[in-house]
Amino acid sequence: MKIETTINNQKKELNVKNYTEPLLDVLRRHGYVGTKEGCRSGQCGACVVLVNGLPVNSCIYPAGRASGKKITTIEGIGIPNKLDKIQQSYLESGAVQCGYCTPGMILCTKSLLDKNPAPTDEEIKLALDGNLCRCTGYVKIIDAVKLAAKKLKKSSHR
Amino acid sequence: MSNNTIYLPKNLSEALKILNNSKEKVLPLAGGTTLLLNPTEKFSYIELDGLNLDYIKSDKNNLSIGAMTTIGQLAAWPQSARYWNGLIRECTLTIASTPNRNMITAGGNIVGLRPWSALAGVLLLLDGKIITARGKNYTAKEFFSKLPKTILGKNIVTKIRIPLNDKDLIGKWKKFSLTETDYPILSMGILYKLKNKNTIENIKIVATGLTILPQRFIKTERMLKNKQLTDNIIKLLTKSLQNEAVIGADIRVAAEYKREILGAIFKDILP
């Protein structure tokens, strides 16, 4: 079956094997390989994408349900030569080691900061409670979110 | 990968027709998370997404929650942090993680009855009602007296209604799990009113995760009524609660361990 959706602000028609094919597989098949496969059971957050601005685990999200919705993948946040402020903050804070969990972390951070530009530590922990990182502790990641909030605030004041 | 047939009705009456007329086993599809985690299930499904069942409304008498409202929506609803001392927010934030809360629905959580179905316990505390597409309503007590799927038959939960008359009572919810993000081993909630600083005027106690169905502890509630919370009373009532609990098999921990944890959480959650 085919579904029509908007990915990273571009209208797309996606080939979907069946309604309940995981959105993760469909996205990766269509080239959005920044969306990572981790646990495949909705536990680790590596596959997080935003659907209508909210983070979901794409490994347990039925692709058919994405029809007519707006999807944001990590490719829609920034590209290697033009990083988004959130991505830049993760780099500067040393919040990335192997990087496998980072796309999911960044998308959850974006969803948080879009709604709440100045989150507390507790609010950051809650927003990232579905993202597991097996390399780092989470201190640098929380620092990165706070730095991103500062950078975004600064740029919105210009 | 799943090859289940998925029906896409345009409205609820079409969904009910499909349920009625189908010869195969057809189930309503709520958040979809369980189906994608168990893709070998050989059922067909009726998609409820897009049928306008995701809303939270309140008037002076009732809070109405559409069955397809996500747990995330419910946690973010401003009044969830205010009514019953924030019981709904506290409870919903113990269900899964942020990305999963954006998929798990209120209806799915109470019909599916998984270890993380905390909303079922909250409905028992708050005398919630479960409203269905065929107009049959159930009290939470009726709905959780046996497996909701068997109670529903060829029917669909459309709404949860909670009376707001007691919204100033104090509610608390606690989850116990082996790690912070793990599924709960058990969860417990209370709703109470104090007479003076240390005397219980009225209390309701529920736990989820002990068996598939949520449990209420009526005997212990009665014993607690009008009691001052001294160390001796708490010790006595903890024993009563542990004896009253029905604990089913859980591959992760022994029943005796669960009974001990239940007692510890009870002591912790009391005012």
As a percent range, the share of helical residues of chain A equals: 25-40%
Q: Biggest β-sheet of chain A: count, sense, barrel?
A: 5 strands, mixed
Total strand segments of chain A:
5
Q: What is the name of the CATH architecture of the largest domain in chain A? A: Roll
- What distance separates the N and C termini of chain B? 49 Å
| Helical stretch tally of chain B | 12
What is the rounded distance between the termini of chain A?
46 Å
Q: List unreliable stretches of 5+ residues of chain B.
A: none
The string of secondary-structure elements of chain B, in order, is EHEHEEEHHHHHEEHHEEEEEHHH
- Rg estimate of chain A, integer Å: 15 Å
What general outline of chain B do the C-alpha atoms trace? Answer: globular
* CATH topology-level fold name of the largest domain in chain B: Uridine Diphospho-n-acetylenolpyruvylglucosamine Reductase, domain 3
Question: Which sheet architecture does the biggest sheet of chain B show?
Answer: 5 strands, antiparallel
What's the CATH class label of the largest domain in chain B?
Answer: Alpha Beta
